Amino acid sequence: MSSCRRLKLVGIAGLTAVLLSSLTMGAFAENSETGDPGDPIVQGEEAL
């Protein structure tokens, strides 16, 4: 396998990994903005 072809393959794999991770993080950020009651951070009188 030539070095140019290997470099292209690594670049495509890297871009795919970045795209998948950004989509995943975007989905988690969308859920956190809603302020779901299942949020583990407790404040006020309910805090221990």
C-alpha end-to-end distance: 61 Å
Structural class: mainly alpha
Mean pLDDT: 77
Residues in helices, as a percent range = 55-70%
Uncertain runs are none
CA gyration radius, whole angstroms: 20 Å
Number of DSSP helical runs: 1
- Relative strand content: under 5%
Anisotropy-based shape: rod-shaped
Largest sheet report: none
List SSEs in N-to-C order: H
Query: What's the total number of strands?
Result: 0
Structure in words:
Helix content is 62%, strand content 0%. With 48 residues, it is mainly α. The relative contact order is 0.08.
Give the gist of this structure.
By secondary structure, the protein is mainly alpha-helical.
Relevant terms:
mainly alpha; 62% helix
How is the topology of this model organized?
Blueprint: H1 3-32
